[in-house]
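Fold this sequence, please.
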Amino acid sequence: MDGCRDELAAARRDELAAALMRLRGRIAAACAAAGRDPAQVRLLPVTKTFPAADVALLVDLGLLDAAESRDSEAAAKVAEVAALRPAARVRWHMVGHVQRNKSRSVARWAVQVQSVDSARLVDALDRAARLAREAGHRRDALGVLVQASLDGDPTRGGCPLPHLAALADRVAAAPQLRLEGVMGIAPLGVDPEPAFAQLGAAAARLRQAHPGAVELSAGMSGDLEQAITYGATCVRVGTALLGDRPLTSF
C-alpha cells in the first residue's frame, strides 16, 4: 500500500512539474513580448478544492505561496500542509469573497487578502488582525489588495473603479492592515484586454497616492498573457497548474 501511494505521489509530482514548466514558459514569453522581466511576475497557485498533498508537492517544487477562496476549506488545509511539510513556511493568500464573520479566522492564516472590496470589510479585517496579533497567531500586519470591479457584477465582488481610491485610503489608514496593491478579475465571455487596461491605469493612479502599493494581481489560466501586457505582477493560476479536477489525496 505504501509503495502504491509513493508511486501515485511521484506521478503527481511529475505532472505538476511539467505543468509548472509550461506555465513558466508562458509567463516568460508574455514578459518578453511586453518588454518586461519575468522576475517581476509572481505565480500564485490557486489550490482551492485540491488536497493538501498537492500543496505539499508544489512546496517541493519550490512554490511557497498558495491561494484559497473559502475560509472553511483553507483553515483546515493550512494545518494539513504544516503537518506534511513542517519545515516550509508557506505563505497563504485569500483570493475569494470574505464574509465579515470569517475575518477572525482568515486573519489567523492569511498573509494577504486580495479580495477587499468594502469599507466594512476593511474595518472587520483590521479588528481581526489586531485580535490575531494579540493572541499570537500573527506577528505582522495583514497584507491587503483592494479588489476592483471590472464588470459591475456584484456577485463577482469588487469595488467600482470610481470608489477604489477612497477604499485604498481606508486600508492605508487601518493600523493592522498594509495596503499592497490592486486585484481584478476580467469579465466573463469577452476580450479581457480592455478590462486589464482599465485595471492597469487604476493601479498606476493608486501607486501615485500610495507608492508602496505596487502589486497588481490579474490574470488566470486563460488570460495571464493579456494581464502581463498591462502590468500584472501576480497571476493567479489553478487549472493550468493543477488540472481540471482535484485528485484523491494520498
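The mean pLDDT is 95. The longest helix spans residues 2-34.
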